[in-house]
Amino acid sequence: MADDPMDKSHDILVIGAGPAGSSAARTAALRGAKVLSIDQKRNLGSPIQCGELVSQWIFPFLPSFSRSIVQTIDKLITHIPNGGPFEMKSPGFMLDRSLFDRELATSAILSGAEISIGTKALDLTSEGVIIEKDGKRKLIQSKVVIGADGVDSIAARRCGQPQIERIFALQYEVVLFESQSHADIFFDKDYEGGYAWFFPKKRTANVGIGIVASKMSHLPELLDRFLNHLKESGKLPKIEIVSKTGGSIPCNPRLKSLFGNVLLVGDAAGHAHPITGAGILNAVVGGEIAGRVAAEAVLKGDMGYLKNYETQWEEAFGKTLTYGAMKRKFIEENWGRPEINFINLIRKTWVGFKEYYEERRRQSGLKFRRN
Known about the structure:
Blueprint: E1 10-15, H1 19-30, E2 35-39, E3 53-55, E4 69-79, E5 86-95, H2 97-110, E6 114-117, E7 119-124, E8 128-133, E9 136-147, H3 154-158, E10 166-175, E11 182-186, E12 195-201, E13 204-212, H4 219-232, E14 241-250, E15 258-259, E16 262-264, H5 280-300, H6 308-334, H7 342-349, H8 358-362
Parallel strand pairs: 1-2, 1-9, 2-6, 4-11, 9-16
Antiparallel strand pairs: 3-5, 4-5, 7-8, 8-9, 10-13, 10-14, 11-12, 12-13, 15-16
C-alpha cells in the first residue's frame, strides 16, 4: 500500500482544492516543495456555486488537457429599465466549473502535489493543521499554510479575522431553447446592490440574481419574477429548471492576507471583484503567486520571504479591487435614494460603462488600502 500523505510532514499545506488552492499547490510543487492539498468535499467542484462566466484572460491558465470550456462569449449586453440595452465587446468563455476544478486539481497532482479529499481542516497550530478524515483527527505538520477555503474560511477565522463582507446569490440552470453567443446583465431597483444575469451554456443557461445581504430573503421571489420576465420577453419560451444553487460572494478585499506562516488567497482573501463578483481569474493568479512565494520561502529557509505574497498580489490586481470596493460603497450608499437617477448610478458603478473608470483615471496613483 502506498504511503498515506496524512502521515507525513509537508512543506506546504493548502486548505481548499478550488481554483486558488489547486493553482497554489501546482505552482509550489513545480518548484520542488512537498505539498499536500486538502478539501472537505468528496467530489471536487460540486456543488457548483458559480456563474461560470470567465474572461478570455483565463485561457493561458487552463490545463493543456482542458475540456472545461463549454462555449465562447463575444459580448456583454447590459439592460437597465428605461435606459438600455447597451452592448460591449467582452470576449470570454462559459466553463463547466465542476470539470474545471477537477482539471486544476489533476494538474496539481501531475505536478507533484498530493491531494486528500473528504478532509476537513479543524484548527491551525504553530506546527500545522488539525484535520478530520473518516471520523479521525490528526495533526498534519507543515511549514506554510495556504488558506484557499472560500468565504467561510477556517484559516481566516483561526487567524482572528472577522467574517468577510459579501453579497448573496441564487441561480437556476434552465434549458436554453435557442443558442446565443452573448451574455446578459440586468439591473433593476429591486436587485439592491447587485444585478441579474443570463449566461448561455449551449443547451442550458445560468440564470441568477445577486443582492446585498440584508435583502437575501427576497432572492427566491425575485428570481421567479426575473424568470417570468425572460419568458414574457421571449428569451425563454418555457421555464424548465434542471438545477438550483446558491451561495455568497465576497465583495470587499481583506486588508491583510498574511498572518505569520498563513497565506489567504481567493475568496478567503476577498479576491473577487467587488462589483461583478468575478473571482476565478484572480483566484488562479493569486493562487500561483501564493504557491510560488511559499515554495521560495521554504526552499530559502526564510519565512520572512512570505511578505512578498501581499506585495505581489496587490501589484497584480490590488488596485482593481480597491477601486471596485470604493464603487461598491458608493452604490450601496446611493441605491434607492429618490434624488439619485438610477441610470446614472449604474453607469457610474458598472464596469461596462466608461463612467465607471472616470475617477480611476483621475486617481492613477491609487494604492491598495493597508492598515
